[in-house]
Amino acid sequence: MAEFQLSAELVAHENDVRAVAFPTPDIIASGSRDGTVRFWKRAPGTPTAFQPTTIASSPKQYFNSVAVLPRKSEDGTSHNRVMYSGTDLIIDIRDAENVDNDHRQLFGHEANVCALDASPSGSYIVSGSWDSRCIVWENYEAARLLDHDTGGPPRSVWAVLAYDNNTVITGSADTNIRIFDLQKSRRQNARPSQGFATVAAHTTIKTPDVVRALCRFSTELTKRHPSNADFASAGNDGVIRLWKNTATGVEEKGQLHGHDSFIYSLAVLEYGELVSSGEDRTVRIWKGMTCVQTIVHPAISVWSVAVGPNNDIVSGASDGVVRVFTRNESRKADAEALASFEKTVQSSSIPAPAMDRKNIPPKAWLDTNRGQKPGQIKTVLDEDGTILAYQWDASEWKLVGTVVEPPTSKASHNGQEYDFVWDVDIGPEQPMLKLPFNRGDDVYAAAKKFLEENSLPISYFEAVAAFINDNLGNQQGFSKGDGNPNDTQPAEKPYKWNALLPHTKYLYLVQSKLALGLNKLREFNGTVHKAIQLNPRQLDHLGLLVNELTARPEKAKIDPDVKQSVVTVVTQWPYERRLPGLDFLRCIAVNEGGAKHRGGNVLEAAVLSALNLTTEDGTPPLASIDMMKDVAWGQVTANNVMMALRVAGNLFATKEGREIMTKEAGPIISLLAHITGVDAAKTPFGEANANLQGALITVAFNYAALAYNERQKSPRETNVSTPILETLLAIARKVATTQESREFQFRAGMVAGNIAAIGGAELNLVRGASVTEWLEAAGKQGEERDQRIWSVLEEIDTLLRGQ
Fold first, then answer.
1. 8 A C-beta contact, residue 73 and residue 14
2. CA distances from 103 to 81, 98, 100, 516, 725 (A)
3. At what angle do helices 742-758 and 771-779 cross, to 10 degrees?
4. Which ranges carry the PFU domain (predicted)?
5. Domain 505-663 sits in which CATH superfamily?
6. Cα separation of 130 and 145, whole Å?
7. d(Cα 578, Cα 567) in Å, to the nearest integer?
8. Which residue of 37, 341, 469, 522 pairs with 56 in a disulfide if CB–CB is 3.0 to 4.6 A?
9. Separation CA 775–CA 792 (nearest Å)
C-alpha cells in the first residue's frame, strides 16, 4: 500500500495544537494552547487548501480535547458534531457544518477537561479530567460518574473510550485501565452521588506507566489483526499494548515497540492499521505488529492524531501547525510543498542530553549498519562536527534533524542560577509559576518547597513531583533510540513524602469564577429593597474588580469603595442572597489591604453574615458571640458558613490578615468546634457538606501552622494558646474519623503534626489526644493504603519518641 504523504499544512494557531478531530472529509477541528478552537474547511476545488474559522477564543484558557459526536439526520446521512473543552471546564458541542446550529454546553468538571469521546451511535458522551472525575453524559446531562477513587490523592483521567453503547474504558495517571459496564451497573452498582449515579469499574488492569491514549478496533480490524485484539492503549512508557476482552477477563495480546518517548494519541484506519503519535516527534503507522511508516514532524511533540472519513490523517503538534497526510494522489501536496516539508524536518533541531562526542560514531557508520527496528533514531557525527539524527525508515537511514546539545549556561530565578526553571500551569485563569531545579536535587524536597513558596495545597504534591520527574525524563532526548531496542526502562523512583513536618506555609484558595458571581449579584440586586440596592456605578466598579482579581488574584489593588459595596451585600442583603458577596470577600481577603473595611474587618463581616447575626446597626464583636445560644442554627445554611470559613482561610495569606486571625482565634476555634460537634452536647453541623468540611479543616490547618510559626518567634507570647491547640486536636480527630476524604484526613494529621513539631508541652497534648491511634485508623480506611497519611503518622511518632 502507498505511503502517507503531506497533503496540507494548516497555519493559524499561535501555540501548541493539543487536540484534533476529523468530523467530515472536508472539515478539521483543532484546539490549542493559544486559547482558540478552529474549524478548517476544505476550499472548493482545491483539495490541499483549508480555510480556518475561529469557533472559540479565550486567551486566558487553553483547549486540549476535541472529539467527534456521531449523529445521523433523518435520511440516514452522517451529520457529525464536534465536542471541545479544556481549562474553562465547559464541554462545548457544535455542528461541524453549521456552528451556530444547536450549540450545547455541559457543566460538571472542576478542573481541566483533557479527554472526550462519544459512543459509536452517539447515544452518550464520556469525559475525563484532571479533577480525577470521569462523567458519562446522556441527552446533554450528566448521567453517571465513573468511579476512579483509589483512596489516595486524586489522579487525572487522561484517556476515555466509549467502546460501545454499554461499555466505557478509561486510562489514568494512576497507571490503571478501567472498564465500566454501564448496563450492568445500572442494576447493581449504581449509588446516588452528587445528583447522578456512581458506577464502579468491573475490571481494572494495572499497567507499568501512566495511560494517555486508548482506541477501539473495529470488528473488521479485530478479524484482520494477528493479535485479534479489541482495543489498544499507550502512554508514558512508549509502548502500545493490545487487549482482548474474553469470557474470563481482559488479556494482553501483544505489544508494539517503536516510539522513543511518551505516546499521546492513538487512532485507527479503516483498512486495519493503527496510527500513533508522541513526544518523539513522530506519527507512526502500524500494520499488524510492524511499524510500516514513520512521519517525522519539525516539532518536539505530536500531541494528537485523528483519522478522517476519507482515511486521511490529521496531526496537531507543538509547533502550532495542523498537518494533513494522505495516500490519495489527488489530495497530495505539490512537489514544492513536499520538498519544503522535508527540508523543514531535516533542518529542525532536536534537544539532547549532554553526550561524550568520543562515543558518537562517524556518519560513515550508516553505510555499513542497518537499523534494528523501523523508526530507530541514530545520532552520528558529521565531518564538520555537527551531530545529526537519522531515522531508519523504509530500509534506509533518513536525516530527521540536527541534535542540539544542552547549553552550559544556567537559568536564572530570583537572582539565583539553576539547571532548570520550568513554567507550571496550575489552573484556569492562574498565572504561570516558576519551578527552579538543579541536577542532583531531591525531587520530593523541591516539590514541597515549591508548594510552600507558592502557598499551594499539599494535595498538589504528587502532581508536582511527577511534573519534575517527567521534565527530567524529557531531557533524555533521542538517546534511547541509540541502544538495544529490547532494553527496558529503569524502575520508577518509589513514591514517598519527604520531611512534611513542620509545615510553615498557609493554605488558601484563590481560584474563582467571579464573572458568574457578578451575574448572580446583578440578578439578586433587582430583588432587594431599593435602600440597599447597588447603583449602576457600583455594579460597574464590581466588574472592574472582577477583572483585577482575575488578572492578579493575589496582587490586586482593591478600591475601598468597591470593598464597601461587597460588605453591604454581605451584611445587609437578605440572608439567602449573600453567597456571591461572600465569595467576593474570599477573593479580596487574600490580597494586601483586603483584610479590613471601613467598619471593621472582613472576618467579622463574613462570619457574622454567615451566622445571620448582622443587623442594621452593624455587627457585634465576634468575641461576644455564644455559638450555642446566639446562633439560630436551623436558619443557617452550610454553603454560607463554608464561604465564610474560606474567607477565614484566605486571611492567613497576609500579615494583616494573620493578625486578625490571631486576635480572633478563640471565637473562630469555638465555631469550628461547634460545627464538628467535638462536645458530645453539640450536634455536628454540615457534616455531609464536603466543601464545608474542606474549608473547616483548612482553617484548622492554618491555625496549627500559625501556632508553630509564632512559637518559634516567641515561645510564651501567643494568642494561639494551649487550650486552643487542645481544641484543634479534637477538631482534627473528629474530621479524620468522620470524613471519608483522604485529603481531609491528611490535613487533620498535619494539624496534629504541626502541633507536635512545636515540642515541649505541646508534645504531651498530642500524646494525650491519642493522635497516633486515630490517625492510624484513618490510614487503614478504604481498600488501598494512603501513603501520605502514613508518612505524617511516622513523622509524628518520631517526634513523640524524641528522635
1. no
2. 10, 10, 6, 20, 54
3. 160
4. 389-482
5. Leucine-rich Repeat Variant (1.25.10.10)
6. 14
7. 10
8. 37
9. 9
Is residue 352 very low, low, confident or very high in pLDDT (cuts 50, 70, 90)?
low
CA–chain centroid gap for 77, Å, is 38
Cα–Cα distance, 356 to 333 (Å, whole number): 41
SS3 777: helix
- Please state which CATH number belongs to domain 5-347: 2.130.10.10
Which position has the grid cell 513539631? 757
Are 402 and 348 in contact by the 8 Å Cβ rule? The answer is yes
Q: What is the tens place of the pLDDT at every residue in 534-570?
A: 998 998 889 888 888 877 788 888 888 999 999 999 9
- pLDDT-above-90 percentage for the chain: 36
Q: Are 611 and 625 in contact (CB under 8 A)?
A: yes
- State how far Cα 607 lies from the chain centre: 32
Return the amino acid letter for 252.
E
Residue with cell 490571631: 662
pLDDT digits (tens, 9 = 90+) for 503-518: 888 888 877 778 888 8
Mean pLDDT, residues 196-206: 83
Chain centre to alpha carbon of residue 390: 36
**Element containing residue 5 per DSSP (H, E):** strand 5-11
Furthest CA-CA distance within the chain: 93
Kindly list the domain boundaries of the chain, sorted by start residue.
5-347, 350-404, 421-474, 505-663, 695-803
This prediction's pTM: 0.53
Task: Give residue 430's pLDDT.
Answer: 56
Amino acid at 615: T
In whole numbers, what is the pLDDT of the chain averaged over residues? 82
- The residue among 12, 69, 64 whose CA lies nearest residue 40 is 12
* Nearest partner of 555 among 585, 528, 586, 587, judged by Cα: 587
pLDDT band at 355 (very low <50, low <70, confident <90, very high): low
Please give the pLDDT value at position 189.
Answer: 39
pLDDT, one tens digit per residue, over 25-48 is 999 999 998 899 999 999 988 899
* Residues 6+ away with beta carbon under 8 Å from 653: 455, 506, 508, 554, 589, 590, 591
Distance CA 470, CA 449 (A): 18
For 421-474, which CATH superfamily applies?
A: PFU (PLAA family ubiquitin binding), C-terminal domain (3.10.20.870)
Kind and range of the H or E run holding 17: strand 17-24
3-state secondary structure of 66: strand
Contacts of residue 196, defined as CB under 8 A and 6 or more positions apart, other chains included, come to 142, 143, 144, 145
